[in-house]
Specification:
Length: 672
């Protein structure tokens, strides 16, 4: 039995006698399993011993050798047991493992709920004690009343004004001791007193009353009251606050008496304050302008950090494209066609590199929900190496150590790229004098103890270590590094959001993140990403290997405001065997559609002047609901949320695209 329970994750302790059992009973025990031979020992247990151990409420499972015990027999047995045993479950032999485990699981859940209720009751009692202590020592009068106006809870300050524990509006004998005035200076009737109004569901922000104690004199009070509601949103009482403003009123009277003498000084002071306020306003506006300039400067600096090295690469790529085209034009003019293929290949390669770099930069700017899938982490990191080297300074070396055969991770690849870029930028800033940034991958099999020590859950993970040799993080700050807006960088050099965004992404991916650091040695941050299921495979685009699919004379309306792109689409689609009609904007497209008897596909840019592509598609599909639509856009593949952007019979293709990709996508959309 002990082995069976252990295999199910229960910690089982065997007790051979009553004393041993009593020594084990405490709040950690979820259930006690006893044999019927142990019952006599329990019946002889003195009541004082039962109470002293405080183990009332622990479920007991009695395994009996007797079969067919009647309800009366069970009640007789139950009566013989100590009163501390409030929950008893009877199991009869023979007993199968499934029945035992099912019963243990049931009583275990019951015990957990019992402990949760007990802890909640203790917590509520402590909260009530705290509330009562707080109310008791508040420097103002506080009271909770029921619907009759009677006091439910109050403090001494309130009882000073309402000694009979009934609000004045409901106590005719004391109503005359309270005087309040309305806006016209007339005495308020008692149904307009603060407590009476609150019991009708009104909120009284503040109302000034004069109170005349039995001992004589006059006291000024300010009363606020709010209604209290039950679960059905019906008023069940009210809360009142009484503030002593006697000194305030006396000061007001004194001020009124000296008003004539002080009027000139007040006016002079008012003018001085107005001048100071005007000066302060100008200074605040100037400061706001300076802060905006600083924010803009920081934005430009952040952009410059990422794009400074990229501009050089783009110029190289554009030089390859422009140079190859110029040489092709020169050779064609000379009717020298031998090297045209080489120049065309060079131009295409440079353009493809530029397109890939553009797509990667746009991917880093996305704001989207996670799209987790099986991802090969090592190739992803290798694809980032060039970008990371451009982000680092020339005094920082990048060391990439990737473990072979680590499998696939279940993660959003774009967010993982963004996280690695954030960590690399942080590491760069931590190495102002240069150093080494190491990115390593490994497989981490964590048991419960190891995972708990690192702040995660047991399981199999792909671990990515990002380690620098920088200034390190003080031990006192290490626990705060993932808090939003916390940064160790100087003022103006960090938002404090980078690590918190990485932390949130990893947590949302069902992983966890750990950090170790030593001052003047460096910092290591490890991302633990869950491995993908064994049946998963990496998602690979099939567009690159697709064959050119020719059309069969279908009619396509192309709407594109860029002359060059419109020309290329026209030529490419006609070469593929389609009949093409062209429009520069949405209005021209609608006119053409009105004149066309048949059209098989609408191809439109998203960012059109006037009507955008999405609006145009909605108008067209109102008249031609079966017409498929292909959107083309210069944004990244998933920059917009496709489930929200695309409607029925719609598809999105991003620029730039190859002829093969265009042919495959058009053919696919026509088959929708």
């Amino acid at each position: 039995m002990v082995q069976l329970l252990g295999e199910e994750g229960y910690e089982a302790v065997v007790c051979t006698d009553l004393a041993a059992m009593l020594g084990q009973l405490d709040h950690r025990v979820g259930a006690v399993i006893i044999m019927d031979t142990f019952v006599p020992a329990l019946t002889e247990l003195p009541a004082s011993v039962n109470d002293g151990h405080g183990w009332s409420g622990i479920p007991f499972i009695l395994i009996s050798q007797c079969r067919g015990m009647s309800r009366a027999d069970f009640q007789t047995l139950r009566a013989r047991l100590p009163s501390s045993i409030t929950e008893l479950v009877l199991l009869e032999q023979p007993l199968g493992p499934a029945s035992l485990l099912s019963t243990v699981a049931t009583v275990w859940r019951s015990r957990q709920r019992q402990l949760e209720i007990r802890d909640r009751m203790i917590e509520l009692a402590e909260q009530r004690t705290t509330l009562e202590s707080l109310v008791e020592h508040l420097p103002v009068g506080v009271c909770l009343i029921d619907m009759k106006g009677a006091t439910v809870l109050s403090n001494p300050h309130y009882e000073r004004y309402v000694p009979n524990k009934l609000i004045p509006s409901n106590d005719p004998a004391h109503t005359g001791r309270w005087v309040g005035l309305d806006s016209s200076g007339q005495p308020l009737p008692r149904d307009q007193f603060a407590g009476a109004r609150a019991l009708r569901g009104e909120v009284v922000a503040s109302a000034d009353f004069r109170y005349y104690p039995e001992g004589g004199g006059e006291l000024w009070t300010r009363i606020s009251a709010v209604p209290l509601y039950d679960s059905n949103q019906k008023v069940k009482g009210a809360a009142l606050v009484v503030i002593d403003i006697n000194a305030v009123k006396q000061n007001e009277e004194t001020l009124r008496r000296f008003n004539d003498d002080l009027e000139a000084q007040v006016k002079a002071r008012t003018r001085a304050l107005e001048d100071a306020l005007e000066k302060l306003t100008l200074e605040s506006q100037e400061r706001a302008r300076a802060e905006e300039q600083l924010r803009q400067s920081m934005k430009m600096d952040a952009v410059g950090q990422l794009t400074g090295g990229i501009a050089h690469d783009f110029n190289n790529m554009l030089t390859g494209v422009i140079g190859a085209l110029d040489l092709m034009r020169l050779r064609i003019g000379r009717q020298q066609y031998g090297d045209l293929d080489r120049y065309m290949s060079a131009a295409h390669a440079s353009a493809s590199r530029a397109a890939a770099l553009t797509q990667r930069l746009l991917a880093f700017s996305r704001r989207q929900s996670l799209e987790s899938r099986a991802v090969a982490v090592n190739p992803l990191i290798n694809s980032l190496v060039d970008l990371l080297r451009r982000t680092l300074t020339e005094r920082i070396s990048l060391d990439v150590r990737l473990m072979d055969d680590i499998g696939l991770a279940q993660v959003d690849p774009n967010q993982l790229e963004n996280a690695l870029l954030n960590l690399s930028i942080n590491a760069r800033d931590a190495m102002p004098d240069g150093g080494t940034l190491t990115i390593a991958t490994r497989v981490a099999q964590l048991d419960a103890a190891e995972a708990a020590n690192l702040g995660g859950s047991a399981g199999l993970y792909v671990a990515i270590d990002v380690t620098d040799t920088g200034v390190g993080i003080p031990a006192s700050m290490l626990a705060k590094v993932f808090e939003p807006f916390f940064t160790t960088k100087p003022l103006g050099q960090g938002t404090g959001l980078g690590l918190s965004m990485v932390y949130g992404f990893v947590q949302q991916s069902s992983g966890f993140i750990s950090v170790t650091s030593t001052e003047d040695v460096g910092t290591s941050i490890t991302l633990h990403i869950p491995v993908a299921q064994p049946s998963s495979s990496e998602t690979v685009s099939s567009a690159a290997n697709a064959e050119v699919v020719a059309g069969a004379g279908q009619t396509i309306l192309v709407v594109e405001d860029d002359d060059s792109v419109r020309l290329l689409l026209d030529s490419a689609l006609q070469d593929l065997g389609y009949r093409v009609h062209l429009a520069e904007d949405g209005q021209q497209a609608l006119k053409l559609l009105g004149q066309m008897s048949a059209v098989d596909l609408l191809v439109t840019d998203v960012g059109l002047p006037g009507l955008n592509g999405r609006q145009l598609a909605e108008i067209v599909q109102q008249h031609r609901p079966d017409l498929p639509v292909l959107f083309i856009s210069g944004y990244a593949e998933n920059a917009a949320t496709r489930s929200e952007f695309l409607g029925p019979r719609m598809k999105l293709m991003t620029k730039p695209f190859t002829l093969d990709s265009l042919a495959e996508t058009v053919s696919c959309v026509l088959r929708i």
